[in-house]
Amino acid sequence: MYRERTIAVVIPAYNEEAQIRRVLETMPSFVDHCIVVDDCSTDETVLTVEAYMYEHNRHVVLLRHEKNQGVGGAIVTGYEWARDNAIDATVVMAGDAQMDPEDLPAILDPVVQDRADYAKGNRLFTGDAWKEIPHLRYLGNAALSLLTKIASGYWHVADSQTGYTAISLRMLKSVNWESTYKRYGCPNDYLVRLNVCNARVVDVPIKPVYNVGEKSGIRLARDIPKLAGLLLRLFLWRMLHKYVIRDFHPLVFFYSAGLLTGIIATALLVRLVVLWVAQGFVPQTTALALAFFALISLQFTMFAMWFDMEANKHLGD
After folding, report:
1. Tens of pLDDT along 23-37?
2. Running DSSP on this structure, what letter comes out for residue 244?
């Protein structure tokens, strides 16, 4: 136990035979349950975990998927076990040893002290993050973090792609985990759903860990466009459920007006380009109308973002 609270650590694992034992061996003693979720590995991940379980007395739970569901699916399986067993605080740590166990108390403290419902690591707080994180991944993370701020309403958090998190039992019971995104991008999905549940979320500085033998399956050129589309859908879902269905907020009008005027500005821009190519000049009225609608669209959108920021300010630490 940790501060008189039961603790479980969910470890999603897919082909982690080289690293999974290190994760289990370095787990702090106050962790009550290590929930290893094998996502249909094709290597000896399961045998490695079973050997560890045979050699040690500490409580390791091995859950196995019959079909590969993705990291999000593995996390949900672990979350559901923790929820059904009434675990006070549940942490997610990767099976590739990229999450420093020394950071675990800092991740847990906001949740066990009831200062937050969800605590997440932030690798970008440290001044050495640019040096320690591969540059392309750093830039991709920064871009996705900005989009996630808009989609989730948690304007005070960053490093949206980190999976090192802790969640309270109350939130495990509040979110419909079965409907969450099952692949890379699940942390973004979780933040959106937590916001609709008015969960308090905090960032916790953690140390980036790389070059420990991990193998990344992330491809920025493939994943960023896919996640941008996911975040757009999640943003619209949050607007509907939080600001229309559960409690109406006028920021919906501002976002709608920003979208409408933005569409008009885009149409005018297309007209301007066509006239320039076809006739070699642009009518003054078209240029003025484009500038007007583009400016109005920007103002409506910025006001909507400001309203959203104010509406969610109390969900920070």
Report:
1. 999 999 999 999 999
2. I
